[in-house]
Structure formats: structure tokens, C-alpha cells
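User: Here's a chain of 647 residues. Predict its fold as C-alpha cells.
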Amino acid sequence: MGKIRLSALLGDGMVLQRETENSIWGYAEPGRTIQLKMGEYQAGGETGADGSFEFLLPPMKKGGPWEISLEDGENRIVIRDVLFGDVFLLGGQSNMELPVARTLERFETEIRTTEEPEIRLFEVPKEYLFGEKREEIYQGSWWKAKGEELLLFSAAGYFAAKELHEKEQVPIGLLQTAVGGTPVKTWCSEETIRRLGLDVEELEQCKQTGYSKEIETEEAERAERWWKEALHPEAEEEGLAETDGPDGIPEKGKSAAAVHSGGSIRIPGFFEGTSLSGFHGGLRLKRSIWLSEEKDWERQEAKLYLGALVDADITYINGVKVGETAYRYPPRIYQVPAGILHGGENILEIEMLVFGDGGGFMPGKAYELRFGETEVMDLSGEWDYEVIRQMEELPETTFFIYKSAGLYQGMLYPLRRWNLKGCFFYQGESNTGRTETYQEELTAMIADWRALWKREDLPFLYVQLAGFSDGKEHTEGTDWAELREAQRKTGNVPDTMMVQAYDLGEYNDLHPTDKKSVGIRLALAAEKLIYGREVLCRGAEVREVLWKEEEAVVRFLPETTVLHAVEKKGSLPEAWKQAEVKGFEVIFSDGSRSAAGAVLASPETVRVRLPKQKEVAGICYAWNDCPLEANLYNEAELPVVPFEAYK
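Assistant: Prediction complete.
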């Protein structure tokens, strides 16, 4: 007898949208009678020719827990601990995907003491599909915001949910679909890709039978060979094929690496302009750590901070592996268990892989060994290095999960029956190289999602890009500013709202860890757009610029906004107080720019000083990739929206 089969979404601990009908669907043997029970509610029906069935639960008020049972006379399934509340889809790329675990350095006390079982999350399996749409999800489970499960939550999603749960006193369900590195095109339907005409050739290529799997297999084998040759060149010579290390890499000590050249390098810093400029391949970096003989270090635990390096590392202390990371972005924070360190000389060793040009150690990060809360050993400075093997540049990987319509069909389509309160979206970093079409693409994507859920007014809240400049404290790049402007313009779509985060970025980290502030701002926007609360949820926007001979007078909307400037140090505000307005630039007729002095003339007005020596074409505010110097906020401590204005 065939069993009753349900989507993994329909599982213990699930959250269904309150105050609307909810679908309970599945499959059993064709022609069977299925009975559903939930409390006093009962319904029955017969499966179709394909074995499918579907019931609509009546609208329910917030709360629970409930049990839902399904039986066909031979088989019975019970879904336990069901809550009715508000359900939000979490979409986008890595800054929405970033887990709570990555924010522990900033929020550990708060996170470790959190126990909020009415906030729940289901992470949708990261699977692309071309040429057809995935009908169902059969893997995954609902997690609760407590203990180790909380560490797996989207950090931005969790902090938004926490705010809404506290303010609205309603259970919150999160469907997490974010995938790191994804451009907006992968979240669009195939029909939209064809209508926009931007990536049709790519779409057709990906639809070819076996194409993606063939490329993925070929590239995975190529990358594995590259890693082996870069770190263990003699393995090729000796015919060493069997390995037992991670990703097929031999464990430390299995083979001795050939040394071709070496020297010293200063950490942190990029390799450009050093003896390793242009290098790609395998390196071994070493440094001695001297510890007092008077202390029993073997019983001492420690934490090793190696900032962020480009690109991959396997790190050892005294020959014992303490951590590894296979790509450039995550901060290296490795636990050092007791029994590894000892009095006297200790050897810290990094086997490092540089896939392409531009290797090095990200500036502005911590490079240190910490013992408890107070004892810190600085690890910056000169390190010895030796070249294991210099390689040809590792070709970029083809990520089919980034390709047109792949995740719309593989991840979003199976969710279409699940009722939503709204969508939270944080994406755009992967579109900064194609800013000119982003507004059109994002607008089309929003329409796709609303069509999929059959709701033209489905609320869509999204995050304007955080500041980032790839380790450069000062940058003149504007690709990210132009993407932010495309995001701002998308706010003209009805039932959407943008929240800002450029001030929450970090010049040296693509994944800034202050996701709590992002979540709070998303929740504020939801309070306004979805729950109809009268809250200030957005920074002031420019209303007009009055041009005078020696100054530009900038007035902001709304006129009731009370602006103030703050003194900022580092990447985040530390001292909230009256200060000179920073972040304005003058745009000259030749296209060049320079910083402009500005003062707050009234709660809604800023006066920007204009130079006389060159012809002025316009001004701008917070208009670069990483405008962390911009310091103008409203009374809700929300930053002024970036803008360009021309005469």
C-alpha cells in the first residue's frame, strides 16, 4: 500500500499564515479517501488519478500549537506543533543567507541567551533547475530560534523576525531561499528572461540535457587537480592518488612539499607591490609564537584570528590543523583546543592558496591569538613564506546556480502554495557590474514573485547595498552607488519599500556582521508597509537643491525630518553628537569629484560649499562604493538616502 507523501514544508513545527486559508496537499495511492483533522475541523476527499490531494484549512487566528492528521484507512501522518502567525520569504544572496553563527563575535551574549520557539525557519534546499519547474521539496525541516538551531538562521531574517515578534506578538515563520553570489536573473522566471532579452542565450544553453552536469564535473576535477598540485606537487610525480584530507587534499604530514623560493611578507596587506605580486598557487607561511615557560599552556584554550585572506587556507599550530576555509570571504576565527600550545616556541603555519591575481591578507582585520577576554598576542608583522608551487591562474568556476531562472524554478516554484505575509530581499552585490539594467530586472522579478503567489499586492521589502570597497579605505568607485540608485528607483513599484544599509557596511568585508541593525530596519519598514503603523522607517531624501554662487542649499523630504550629523570612527557610528556634515562631494564639469565641506543649516537643510577654481556641474552625497564617511541621519537614526544632483 502506498504511503501518504507530503512536502517537507508540511512538517512538525511549521508556521502557517494566520487569517487566511492554507493549503495542505500531498500524494497517496490513486482513488484513496483521505481524511484530515485539526482540532474540531475535519475534511475528506479522494485522491486524483495521479494520487494527489489538497485541502484548504479555514482561516485561523494567531497561536497554537495544533496537530494536523491525515489518514487513508491504512496510513496515518500527524504534523505536530503547528503555529499560525505571519510568514515571510527571505530572498537574495549572501548577506541575507549569512547565518547567525557568523555574528557571534558581535552578539554572542544576546544570541546564547535567546530562546524564542515561536520564531521558526525552513531553509529551502539550494537546487537549481532548467527546462522544467520543481514541483515539490522533500528535504528540510523547521528550526526554532533557540540553541544550536538558531545559529543556522539567516541573521538578518532572525533579527527582523525578533523585532516583529516582540511588537506584534505573533508567531513568525521564515522561508529562507537566499543563496550567496546570486544575480537577480536567477530569481526571475524563464518567461521574464525571454521578455527582457538579456540572458536568453545563456538560458537556452543551460537547458541542454546534461550540459550543466558535464561542466560541473569537469570543473570540479580541474579544481581538485589544481589544489593537489599547488600544495603537494610531488604527489603528481609519485603517482599519489589516494588522499584522506578535506576536499581530497592530503592531511598534514602525508607528503613533503617541494620548496622553490621564499622570503618574508608583511601581514596584513595585499601582495600587490611585493615579492608575491601576481602570484597564484600554493604558499606556506610560518611564524614562531613564544609563550612563557612558567604557565601551563597545554591546558589553555585559545582563539586564533587570521582576518580574511585571499583565497583559501589550511592552518596549523605545532603541526595540528586548527582550521581551514576554502574561499576568500569568511573571517578566519579558529578555535585552538587545549593540548596544542605549550611553553616556549610554538609554530603557526598557514598553507595558503591564491587562485588568481590579488592575493593577500585583508587590511583592517584582527590578526592575533586570544586567551580568554584580556590576553592577546598580536600576529601582525613579518612572516616567513616559501613557495610550494607557482601555478597558472585557476579558471573561474561556472556556477550554474547563478544562471538565468535556475533558482526561480528550483527553489521558488515549489513554495507557491505557501501563503506569505511579505518578502524580505537583500541582493545586488552580484549585479554591480551590470547596473544599467538592474531596475528593470528587479522590477520584473518582483512581478514574477507576485504572479507566482497570485498576489499583486504582495509586500516586498528590500535592502539597499551596504558599503564595501574590497579592503580599500578610500575609493572613488561608483558601481555600487549606481546600483543603490537603481534600487531606490525600484521603490516606485507599489507595495515595495527600501531600507538602507550603506552605513552598516565594512570597507574590508563583503559580509558585514551588524545584521541586527539591518533586521531592525527591515522590521520598521514592515511595521509601516504591512502592519500600517505610524513609524519613521526611512532616511530623508533630497527634495531640492538651490544653486548659489558659493554654495548649494540642499533641502530634504519630509520637511518635518529632524536631521543631525554624527561623528564616526571606523565603519560604524560610535559617538552620536553634533558634527560637521561629511559625505558630500562636488562634481566638476570634466567629471572629476572632490570632497566638499558642508554644514547643517536647519533641521531640514544643508549648505554645501562650492569651490571657485573649477566649473561645478553638480553635487552628490554618499555616492561611492563605500560611503562610510557620510554622517547625516534623521531622528530615527536612519541615514540620508544617497543622491546625485546636477545644475
